[in-house]
Each structure stands twice: as structure tokens, then as C-alpha cells.
Amino acid sequence: MEKVQPQTSYSSRSAQVISLEKGKLPPQAVDLEEVVLGAMMIDKKGVDEVIDILHPEVFYKEAHQNIFEAIYKLFQSSEPVDLLTVSAQLKKEKKLDIIGGEFYLIQLTQKVSSSAHIEFHARIILQKYIQRSLIKISNEIIEDSYDEGTDVFDLLDSAESKLYEVTQGNLKRSSETAQSLVIQAKKRIEEIANKEGLSGIPSGFTQVDKLTSGWQPSDLVIIAARPGMGKTALTLSMARNMAVNYNIPVAFFSLEMSSVQLITRLISSETGLSSEKLRTGNLEKHEWEQLNVKVKGLETAPLFIDDTPSLSIFDLRAKARRLASQHGIKLIMVDYLQLMTAGGSQKGGNREQEISTISRNLKALAKELNVPVIALSQLSRAVETRGGSKRPLLSDLRESGAIEQDADIVSFIYRPEYYKIDEWDDEERTPTAGQAEFIVAKHRNGGLDEIRLKFVGHLGRFENLEMFDFPTEIHSRMNDAANDDTFKPSNLPSPDEAFGSSMNDDVTPSDGDDGIPF
């Protein structure tokens, strides 16, 4: 049997591996490596079956790494792969003698008669490589853990990133048949029917959920607006609805505000006490009781807030994976996209390229964890300089067209009241006070719409508009009653019916609160 010689390219990497357990050889399958390479040189079908599964680094022997690299280059340039072409490619790269010459290539082709079971053999080779990688990573983690100067959270992030790289680079999904996909689709449709038409995560806003059927798994949702429109307020309202009303675990990454500030806003929204009162602590006795009672639902809600500043897309991915494994989060929110960085590996590019990298990785994260990712985004100043209603457009997305390209849903928040516009530009010319429009400008899997929402400025909260649309109903019913010969006062709606039970809540806006949106 041929003696395995120490190899330069991999032995330098595996030196640390062997130091972990002295005297033990790293996991390997050299005989299968020989069989796979031999099959690839005698049968084109073998190349097609494993070329996207393997890469040079998975081979234990350096000679095998060089041979596979030559085969891969021939495949990329659409040239035939056989004993002669591989030999010529290695000779061209001056590596033929390194691998043992043409005699060694001939030996490989004589070890196998066909490419049967080549994929199975390739999977074993890949498995051995992953084992070696895990041993190497474990050894590095042990060495780093003994270093007292290493931050433990940096150590965790580094460990997760290395494991993620192994997963991403080697565990590739294969194609699925139409039959299996149809079965999956039918099962999902049945689940949707049982959920009364909502196939995704409900936002708590009736018309939004009706349009989207809930936020869908693996979707990237962009919510964009100019500063002061209420981006954070809207996402906090949604996060509260999901976590408190539906008990859905939500991860909220805030790059702009501290976690305590965010939870204070949620307390204001939940209790009806203005943010001004909560900031000053100037509460009456009954307001303290109101505070203690109404935050209980928020205390037990599965809402996880991370306020790490200048978060990189890599750190976000590591943190999200950890939250998904530990707490089973079903939705991720990022506030906001332009405050993120692409990480240390993305140097030298301009800001537009960096934003493209971030948006592309957010979409990849959504697909990897199979959860919706909602990212807030700033709009350019072009909105302010435009005349008319100043409704945002897709072209207003700041710094990169890649955001529009990568997102499954692009939506805008628009409040005419912010621009001193008192009436909506509809036929009824209805007043805009306390109202906002949620504009769905791109929807990859559905329709577009402009949905009106109620904005409660002093509480920093968005709500369904229909709950507050009572003046029109009262007016209509009074007209009907006046024209009815059998008119009775009982035909009019009662105060509770007209104004809702929420009017009895003890909500006292602070005199000093200017109602600036969040």
C-alpha cells in the first residue's frame, strides 16, 4: 500500500489539528478520493454528479487537491475531462511532477471501472473534511479560550462564524422533485386554510395582513420613510402585536436607540401614559397602578431587543442564528439598514456597494432561517424637494438600487400631516390629522395598495384606522334615522358603540408632549 506522505498545503493547516490529539491521524478517506478522481477522468457523468459537491480543500492529499483543481478548471472552460486533458492541464500549471506524474493519473483510472455510486463516495469525502474542519476549529477555540484578554462575546461570535463558514461552504441543498414540492405546497395550503387565510406572521394591522397574508417566511421586507414619519413606531407596534397578542417570538435589532428607550416607548404605547410622563416619572397614584397592571403582558412577551451599535451584517447573522436556536424566533426586525456595516472583509468599496452587500445578506439570512426579515431604511431628500403630495417612490430608496432588487416587499410610510397637508388627495378630501398611509410599492408575491392607518403621536403607536372611523358612521346613521318615519332615539348608536370602550381608558396626554413621531 502506498505510504501517505506529509503534504505541504494541508499539513500546514492540519498541524494544529494533530496537536489536539497527538498520535491520531485526522479523519480521511484517501481510497475514496482515488476512486472519485479516477471515475471523473473516465466518465463524464461522474464529473456532472459531484463537481458542485466537492472543492479542492475537501481532499486530504495535496496531490488529489491539485488533480481536482485541474478537473474543475477544465469543466469551467467547457473542455473535456479525461486522462489526457487532466495531464495536459497539470503540465501547463507545472504540477504534474508534484502529483506523481502521468503514472499516478493512470493508476487512479485503473482503480475504478465506472462512475457508479460516485455521489455517495463524494459525500463521505466531504464528511471527512467537515470532521477535520471541526477538529481544527475546536482546537482554535480552545487556544483562544485560554487567552485571558479575549472578550467572551467576541469568542462566541468567532466560533459561530467559523462553524457557519463550514456549513455554508459544504452543506448544499440538492434539487427537489416536482412531486415532493407539490406535496409540501398542498400541506401548506391546508395549514393556511386552518389559519383563516394567514400563511405568515400577522402584523396586527387588518388591511396589511389581508394584502400580504402575513409576513411570509424567507421574505425580506423593507419599510422606508423620511425621518420623523414613524418608522420605529410602526415596527414597534408590529413587534408588540406579534409578541403580546400572538405570543410570536420576535428579535428587534436597534442600531439607533438603546433597548431601554425602546422598551419605554412600548410601555407608553401599552399603558396609554405619555412618554413625557414616563421620562420624568411624574405619575399620579392611579397612573402607577395603571403602569404596574398593564405592563404585565409586555413583561412576559417573547420580545428580544439587541441595541449593539454599528452592527455588522456578520454579527447580525451570528446573533440571529443564536436567537433562532435558543428561543425559536419567528421574525427579525432591523432599525435601520443604513446604520449597519458590511464587516471587516468588505474594505475598499463605496457605500453603495456596502449597502448592496448588506441587503443581499439580509435576504440570505431570511432564507437561511426561514423567517421574515423586516429592515427599516431611510429615503433620500428627493422626497422633500418634490412638489405635490410628496408621496415616496421606489426611486427614492437611499444609496442603492440593490435594496429594491433584493426585497420581496418594499413599503413606505407617508404622513401628509408632516408636510402641513390637511386633506388627503382623494375625492372625499378627508382630513389627514392623526392618519398615515402604509404604501406597498413592490410586492413580489401579491398586489400593491395604499393602506390607511391611525397614528397616535403622543404614544408613538400605529393602529387600525377602522377602529376610529366612527364620525362617518354616526353621520350616516343619523341621516338614515331622520329619513325614517319610525325614527326613535334608540336608532342612534350608543356612546360605547360609537366611540369604543377605549374611550373609557385612562389616557392622559402630557401638556408638554408635542406629538413628535418616533
Automatic annotation (TrEMBL):
Enzyme class: isomerase
Xref: InterPro entries: AAA+_ATPase, DNA_helicase_DnaB, DNA_helicase_DnaB-like_C, DNA_helicase_DnaB-like_N
Region Disordered, annotated ranges: 480-518
KW Protein biosynthesis (keyword) present: no
GO MF annotation, one: 5'-3' DNA helicase activity
A GO BP entry: DNA replication, synthesis of primer
Catalytic activity as recorded in UniProt: ATP + H2O = ADP + phosphate + H(+)
Domain SF4 helicase intervals: 194-469
EC number, as in UniProt: 5.6.2.3
Function recorded in the entry: The main replicative DNA helicase, it participates in initiation and elongation during chromosome replication. Travels ahead of the DNA replisome, separating dsDNA into templates for DNA synthesis. A processive ATP-dependent 5'-3' DNA helicase it has DNA-dependent ATPase activity.
The family this protein is said to belong to: Belongs to the helicase family. DnaB subfamily.
Entry keyword set: ATP-binding, DNA replication, DNA-binding, Helicase, Hydrolase, Isomerase, Nucleotide-binding, Primosome
Keyword DNA-binding: yes
Annotated source species: Halomarinibacterium sedimenti
GO cellular component: cytosol; primosome complex
Pfam families: DnaB, DnaB_C
PROSITE patterns the UniProt entry points to: SF4_HELICASE
Official protein name in the record: Replicative DNA helicase
